[in-house]
Design goal:
The structure holds two protein chains of two kinds. Chain A is an all-alpha fold. Helix content of chain A is about 70%, strand content about 0%. Chain B contains 17 helices and two strands. Chain B has a two-stranded antiparallel ribbon with strand order 1-2. Chain B is mostly helical. Chain B has two domains: about 15-245, no CATH class; about 345-445. Classes of the chains: A mainly alpha, B mainly alpha. The interface of A and B includes residues 83, 86, 278 and 280 of A.
Chain lengths: ~350, ~450
């Protein structure tokens, strides 16, 4: 019996019980539009791949990481003692940044392709929740090494919820497990990072992916305007899948290069009695709200400045989330254009405040 | 030491060579591989009467001529300028040892340039068989350039015991052939030959990807598939050739590969391990992407895919050359000359007389400890370190006070066999005065005197 007949026998046995050939038939029928903007279709998949990498490297780190009082020491051992511990940690840290970057590219490409319109509103909304959860992943994970940088960045970052009127300090207290960032905070963040957030993220991600399967890929308006005979497409299997996997492998290489050439450092252990180091700032994906708070804080006096900053940012996000109910279909005419300009404004504002944030680090 | 020091801020002069050389290798190794690719492809096209291939190959050869003839030559000459400025001591040794054996490269370069131009411009103008002969002449000249440069490069890593036994006696040229065909010569030649073949395939994929797969499916399919096959020798032979290459490297230097396994901390030299990981990762990806994307789906293979493979090849090449350079530490010529130009047996003389007595060009003569220390820093440390840029000493020594810096330099000066820095650092040579001067210089940068009126710390807290 050849390997081929053995393989097909195994396939047949599994197919009778799991209905694999039905799935394969669906996959074979599925097509992906081919046009000038098709490149952007890969970014959701890249995000998914990076998330899977995070799960893989995260589990490996989980084996050796000890939350609480020994957090720093366990990370020190991972980085400087265990074989290739530094590599897994660097890959995890870099992939977190790359994943957030990929999510933002994915989000903006969805926005500008107007893939939030009917019937894809749930896709947009679930995507926004996934973005928020990913940001929480980033924030909670950043504290876990408990070195100087992560301690102070978290301390500074938690000033943002404190600024929420009335309930802000209570929220911050709950996150911190007390008035200060301590080993209780790190245990709390660890639980969040490793249990709560994955438990929320994974089912929502499954829902998000199911919606993509159900509705297919959106096409830009200019492509929609073409008659069906002029529109090109490729089969999902094997053509798009092959290219998708190629993009994943290229992402893996970019990650490998970053993790090997710029391994993630470990600073000094935190000292809660020390002042914050000069120029402390959150990671790049939080730089924008951080800088907006700073900018408005210097224009308006005292708490008014912080509240104004928070309000502005919250308003912006709210408008962003609710865009499918404003620009509902291709018949929305002027609203479609307004939404487009709003998107451009959002990109420019985010990029500008992030750049200014880095420029003005003291 | 006997030469001025070429101070490139932030980057360091070594990286000037690195950037030019990595760029050069991408093109020059393509020149060798492509030199074989073109006549072989032409021969295949003529045998199989494939006029569509021949028409396509004319375009290839034009691209080939411009890329290798212009960028290859500029970057190659650029390497000459860069090495002479960066490490004149080592360059001097290489020239004294190999002079005409090396200069003969230029004969083959001239033949290459001439034949490449003739090959392109006489296409369809001269007899087919003669045209093919021109191609073969190019291929031969090109292979000779690789054969020669490989000798010089591998000599730097493993000069071999025979040459080392006559080094410094004035009779080095008597062991020319031993130096040329040194321990790592053959594995390196075969490794580079495989890379040349791979680069030929990869650059050919760039050209082939531009064919419209809908209009000329058969042409694109056949050319893409044939070009991918050029990657096969690498895939098959590389692991064995790498193992052979590493086996021929002295054990103390091979040990550098292991330093980065359990740590990436400062004070160790994990670079070689990390670069080796990049080589393995990117090489495996190239093979995978080339097979699944190009070979299995040639008509859909577009230029973006081809450029992605090229960039992966750039990463693999860059990492490979970088780790080869790092593997040589602490030497620039293995076991003969340290990276900073100090010859191994001369260290005793410098310890006796002082570093500056043997380095007239490096010091401006100002009689302050800081000025002397700066000269010693440039001469002894500047080959591999900058103060605030690449491998920055201000950061690497951060947190140490003056006494600590002094004991660190003293450790390097004493250079005991069990020192962990033995693997990748040369000894600090000179007198105790030199140790003090260097310490004062470094301390002035690591622990600068506090400015009066300190600025307040900015936080978001109120």
């Amino acid at each position: 019996m050849t390997t081929k007949t053995m393989a097909s026998n195994v396939y047949g046995w599994m197919d009778e019980r799991l209905g694999l050939s039905e799935l394969a038939a669906v996959a074979r029928k599925k097509t992906v539009p081919v046009h000038a903007q098709s490149f952007w279709y890969y970014w959701g998949g890249i995000t998914l791949f990076l998330f899977m990498l995070q799960c893989f490297t995260g589990v490996l780190l989980l084996v050796y990481y000890r939350p609480g009082v020994e957090a720093y020491e366990s990370v020190r051992q991972i980085t400087f003692v265990m074989n290739f511990g530094w590599l897994i940690r660097s890959a995890h840290a870099w992939a977190a940044n790359l994943m957030l970057f990929a999510i933002l590219v994915h989000m903006f490409s969805v926005f500008f392709m107007k893939a939030y319109r009917k019937p894809r509103e749930f896709g947009w909304l679930s995507g926004m929740v996934l973005l928020a959860l990913a940001a929480c992943f980033g924030f909670s994970g950043y504290l876990l090494p408990m070195d100087e940088l992560s301690y102070f960045a978290t301390k500074v970052g938690l000033q943002i919820p404190v600024a929420i009127p009335w309930i802000g300090p209570a929220i911050a207290n709950m996150l911190r497990g007390g008035p200060d960032v301590t080993e209780f905070t790190v245990q709390r963040f660890f639980a969040l990072h490793v249990v709560v957030l994955p438990a929320l993220f994974i089912p929502l991600l499954a829902f998000h992916l199911w919606l993509v399967q159900r509705h297919g890929n959106a096409v830009p308006e200019c492509e929609e305007a073409k008659p069906a005979s002029e529109r090109k497409s490729m089969p999902f299997m094997p053509n798009f899948l092959r290219k998708d996997i190629a993009m994943w492998i290229i992402s893996l290489n970019v990650l490998a290069l970053l993790a090997s050439v710029f391994p993630w450092a470990l600073g000094k252990p935190y000292d809660s009695l020390a002042p914050a180091p000069m120029g402390i700032h959150p990671e790049w994906y939080f730089m924008s709200p951080f800088e907006m708070l700073k900018m408005l804080g210097s224009v308006l006096p005292g708490e008014a400045g912080e509240i104004a900053g928070l309000l502005l940012f919250t308003l912006g996000i709210a408008l962003w989330i609710l865009i499918p109910f404003y620009d509902t279909s291709k018949e929305s005419g002027r609203r479609g254009r307004t939404a487009h300009y709003f998107g451009l404004l959002a990109v420019c504002a985010l990029v500008a405040t992030t750049v200014i944030g880095y420029w003005t680090i003291r | 030491m006997n030469y001025p020091f070429w101070d490139i801020p932030y980057l360091g002069s070594g990286w000037v060579i690195g950037i030019i050389a990595i760029f050069h290798v991408m093109i020059s190794q393509f020149a060798v591989g492509g030199g074989l690719y073109l006549p072989l492809a032409e021969r295949k096209a003529l045998r199989e009467a494939r006029n569509d291939w021949l028409a396509e190959l004319v375009g290839y050869s034009k691209f080939f001529l411009i890329l290798t003839g212009v960028f290859g030559t500029i970057s190659g000459v650029g390497i000459w300028f860069a090495i002479g400025l960066t490490n004149p001591e080592a360059t001097s040794t290489l020239i004294h040892n190999f002079v005409f054996g090396w200069a003969i490269e230029w004969v083959f370069f001239m033949v290459e340039l001439a034949t490449a131009a003739v090959y392109y411009y006489t296409w369809n103008k001269i007899d087919e068989k003669l045209h093919l002969v021109v191609g073969w002449v190019y291929a031969g000249a090109s292979v000779c350039t690789l054969i020669i440069i490989n000798g010089i490069l591998t000599f730097m890593l493993t000069p071999g015991d025979t040459w080392l036994s006559v080094a410094g006696t004035g009779n080095e040229a008597s062991k020319f052939w031993n130096a040329f065909f040194n321990p790592t010569y053959w594995p390196s030649l075969l490794l580079r030959a495989c890379v040349c073949a791979s680069l030929a395939g990869i650059w050919a994929l760039i050209s082939a990807s531009r064919i419209d797969g809908h209009k000329q499916a058969a042409l694109k399919s056949s050319l893409v598939k044939w070009s991918v096959k050029w990657l096969v020798p690498s895939f098959v032979a590389m692991p064995f050739l790498f193992a052979w290459y590493l086996y021929m490297v002295p054990a103390s230097q091979r040990a550098l590969l292991m330093l980065g396994i359990d740590t990436m901390g400062t004070g160790t030299f994990s670079t070689v391990t990390r670069m080796a990981l990049v080589i393995v990762m990117t090489s495996a990806t190239i093979i995978g992407v080339a097979y699944y994307l190009a070979y299995r789906n040639p008509t859909d293979f577009n230029t973006a895919h081809a450029v992605a493979i090229l960039l992966l090849a750039l990463m693999a090449t860059g990492a490979g050359e970088y780790s080869r350079e790092m593997l040589r530490k602490p030497y620039v010529i293995g076991r003969w000359m340290y990276s900073n130009g100090v010859r191994v047996p001369y260290a005793i003389r410098i310890d006796r007389d002082g570093y500056l007595a043997h380095s007239n060009w490096v010091w401006n003569g100002a009689d302050t400890s800081y000025s002397r220390g700066e000269a010693i820093f440039r001469g002894e440390c500047g080959a591999c370190h900058t103060l605030n840029g690449y491998r920055p000493l201000a950061k690497l020594l951060a947190g140490r006070d003056r006494a600590n810096i002094e004991s660190f330099i003293t450790m390097l000066h004493e250079y005991k066999p069990d020192s962990p820095y033995h693997h990748f650092m040369p000894p600090m040579v000179g007198t105790q005065q030199d140790v003090d001067d260097l310490t004062n210089f470094l301390n002035a940068h690591v622990n600068p005197p506090a400015p009066s009126g300190q600025k307040s710390v900015q936080t978001a807290e109120k």
